[in-house]
Design a protein that fits this description.
CATH architecture of the largest domain in chain A: 3-Layer(aba) Sandwich
Strand order of the largest sheet of chain A: 5-4-17-16-15-6-7-13-14
Distance between the termini of chain B: 45 Å
Oligomer: heterodimer
Number of helices of chain B: 4
Helix content of chain B: under 10%
Structural class of chain B: mainly beta
Radius of gyration of chain B: 19 Å
Radius of gyration of chain A: 24 Å
Number of domains of chain A: 3
Distance between the termini of chain A: 77 Å
Strand content of chain B: 25-35%
Strand content of chain A: 15-25%
CATH topology of the largest domain in chain A: Rossmann fold
Number of strands of chain A: 19
Number of helices of chain A: 18
Shape of chain B: elongated
Strand order of the largest sheet of chain B: 5-1-6-8-9-10-11-12-13-14-17-16-15
Amino acid sequence: MSENIRIVENATCTFCGCVCDDMILHVDMDEKRITKAKNACVLGRAWFAEHTIEENAPAAMIDGKKTSVAEAIEAAAQTLVKAKFPIVYGLSDTTCEAQRQAVAITDYIKGTIDTTTSVCHGPSGLAFQGIGESTSTLGEVKNRADLVIYWGGNPAESHPRHFGRYAVTPKGMFTPGGKKDRTVVLVDVRKTKSSPVADILIRPKPGKDFEVLWALRALVKGKRLSSAIEQQTGVPLTVLQDLSDRMKRCRFGVLFFGMGLTMTRGRHFNSGALLALATDLNEFTHFVAKPVRGHGNVTGADNVVSWQTGYPFGVNFSRSYPRFNPGEFTTVDTLANGHADAAMIIASDPASNFPKKAIEHLKNIPIVVLDTKCTETSKDAHVAFRTSTYGINTAGTVYRMDDVPITLRPAFESPFPDDETILIGIKKRVRELMFERHAQDASDATQVAARA
Amino acid sequence: MALELKLHTEPEVPLEADCICPDKLQSLKTSAIENLTVLHGNRQVPLKAFFECRGEFDGEIMIEGDLVNVKHIASAMSYGKITISGNVGTHTGAAMRGGEIVIEGNATDWLGAEMLGGRIIVKGNAGHMVGSGYRGSTIGMQGGEIIVHGHVKNETGHVIRRGLIVVGGNTGDFTGVNMCAGTIIVLGEMGLRPGAGMKRGTIICQTKTALLPTFTRSCDYQPIFLRHYFKYLKSMGLAISDSFMRGPFERWCGDSVELNRGEILLYAGKLQ
């Protein structure tokens, strides 16, 4: 280790949706790597340690061959402009500034933009539209919540600091005793590393979350239920009644829900049932519901795409105005149905985790990839850019899972350009090419009219 | 003489052909019809780039070919008849107000979404969201009939407010979810959670199904009005047994987390 150490205080970890902004980073400026990340959880430490600079990696490649960034930008723009049904996907691991440019490119090329939300909390997005969201910041939860319910998630492993920093143990203004002033309920189909934190552990049968939530809604509304509910859901009526009473009695309750709810049978109806329960409870007390988001800036992607198009994900511009239709314009569907004929993937690796049918189609179309590392998707890319890592090398804005924007403090510089710079270059060239095409179309139309 | 459209080139990417609708072809000659604009991905192209047009439009359109990649056919149609001899793509008959669509093959998702009137007959299967509302909408189908001889997938009749949906086969999950009113008849089996969040309306099913805990059994009875429905459906070519026509039916009321004025009628007799 060299002696040229820089200390970055209040840096932000962008690994998960918690976006903890109290990191103290020790940076070896000669070796260009982070040697210590104080306050980081196990996931955060790995995130900071793994993101080093691969000096020999090319900044841009076309068909696997090293090229200049300018040539790669030209090739990327040509690919996107030629396509009849181009898709832009990813965006949850980059800054809001880059996301904004991606939306603008999609608008110019009349394409379809989608974020990783569609494969994680997309169903919750539909439920927000259908039911509405009773919401709060994590700061309010920390200061006020005396009943915390986790449903369908395992934060001890997926968001290790969620308990300690926001919801379970921190001492708040109205919860000075920390954990002692709170009741923690965990609803999950199996015991996990989060289970020991819970005062009450409820284990419904797999795939029966909707029925349990529906039964709770009925109990909260004072309806009678048959004791046969235990046979149906695996949860005794007395347990449900007790939980319902606790929820009505608490001063400030919060329901955190994870992908155990959104990615099981029933999907958006499961999230919708939970949001409806929170709405029902507001007749008795203050209750909020928040999804526990995964990627560092997936919430930012939802926000940026929403304020630019009016919809959070799965937005199509082929008619020159935004249209939203999950199931039709979401990336898994456009790929699995064989609709997309070009793709730009930003900070995501669909070739590693999409359904087989979607991956097969993805491998058959030209792809433009922007990523900090070599991935399964970038290996098959027509154009691949190596970019700098947001939060470590790049400044910008990200949104925490409770929609609070947080500014990034980069630790050290990267030789690679950031996503925003590349996307601005592509946008500029795409705009020129589209103007040329429109001029050509207008000229052709004039000639046809003259002949007629 | 009916206007005949034959798909001669398979679209590589989705083709949005909402111009294939009697309201938009009214008083147009065939030469004008074949120059109507369709959207091939993000490019505007004339209809003739994909369809061969023959005959004159007199209120009836006959379409040949596998239209699985052709969307929005007969959107907002208000009169006339369209016969499709193959499969058809998404949003067929969406927001339709009148007239009739007959699909000889299968239909995909959002068939008759938010329709207001008219009739759609599908001889094969249909996809998700038949007669439903679009995402974020609280009102789905508001009138008319959708008759599917085969199976359908999830969320059939989501937020339906009026109208009739008949499924000759099975339905997926959440049949009639959040329905405000209207009637859904299922001659096969229903998937999970039928009628979840229903306010009013009737779901009738030929087979017993597990219902949500928020539904309560009120009685067994033999409703006369159902016989009229079944007689009509028999005349439409659906196989309905006499014993099913007679009943009896278990009547379940729900959904109690909402108004509790919806009913699910499950056939309680033995089919002969």
